[in-house]
Amino acid sequence: MDLKADSEDMDYKRPAPIEVFASRSTLHGISHMFTYERMCIKRSLWILFFLGSLGVLVMVCVDRVQFYFQYPHVTKLDEVAAPMMVFPSVTFCNLNSFRFSRVTRNDLYHAGELLALLNGRYEIRDPHLVEENVLQILKERADFDNYKPRPFNMREFYDRTGHDIKDMLLSCYYRGMECSAEDFKVVSPAGFYPQFSLGAPSVQIPPGWDGAKGL
């Protein structure tokens, strides 16, 4: 009796075959793949369909994950036709903030160190790096023996030594008509990045460099 009871307990604890689980599962097609039949064309086809579907699912998931990590974005633009266009302000950027040929001895005395041409002792900075013709001019203009400096104004310096639009504007056409440097008015302080506007009235610029920050 004890042996029979132990046998019944072992049968009770033994998990049900996968065929039983498949027959009771609501997962579509699993009952056709796990059956008691040994070989069956229907069973083989269901297994192929299941593996194929699983492969497609994995492929699509991997593709979407890769696409997500590319951080895609869409830019939408609205185009509006305007019969009359106001000419925008144009900024001319020149890495050479001033023309060396316009620099005077008084400029070197007051701003030579700021312009990286002289050191704190009014001596030529790194003369071995300066071209021979430029070095000769620097030596002449940096001779401050018995020199009496005049008042210096940074705004006047950039207005005088800054690049002129006539030297930078090669050609200009607006609405099919040719324009020239005379058609432009300065609307921002001259200096590192002068800003011009076609036909715009002159604008009063407050002291300081705040006007150039709004470009």
TrEMBL record:
Sample GO molecular function, one term: ligand-gated sodium channel activity
Main location group: membrane
Transmembrane domains' residue ranges: 45-68, 80-98
Membrane topology: Multi-pass membrane protein
InterPro entries attached to this UniProt entry: ENaC
Keywords linked to the UniProt accession: Disulfide bond, Ion channel, Ion transport, Membrane, Sodium, Sodium channel, Sodium transport, Transmembrane, Transmembrane helix, Transport
Subcellular location per the Swiss-Prot or TrEMBL entry: Membrane
GO cellular component, one term: plasma membrane
Domain of life: Eukaryota
Keyword Membrane: yes
Entry annotated with the keyword Transmembrane helix: yes
Family of the protein in this entry: Belongs to the amiloride-sensitive sodium channel (TC 1.A.6) family.
Protein name according to UniProt: Uncharacterized protein
Organism, scientific name: Lates calcarifer
Lineage start: Eukaryota, Metazoa, Chordata, Craniata, Vertebrata
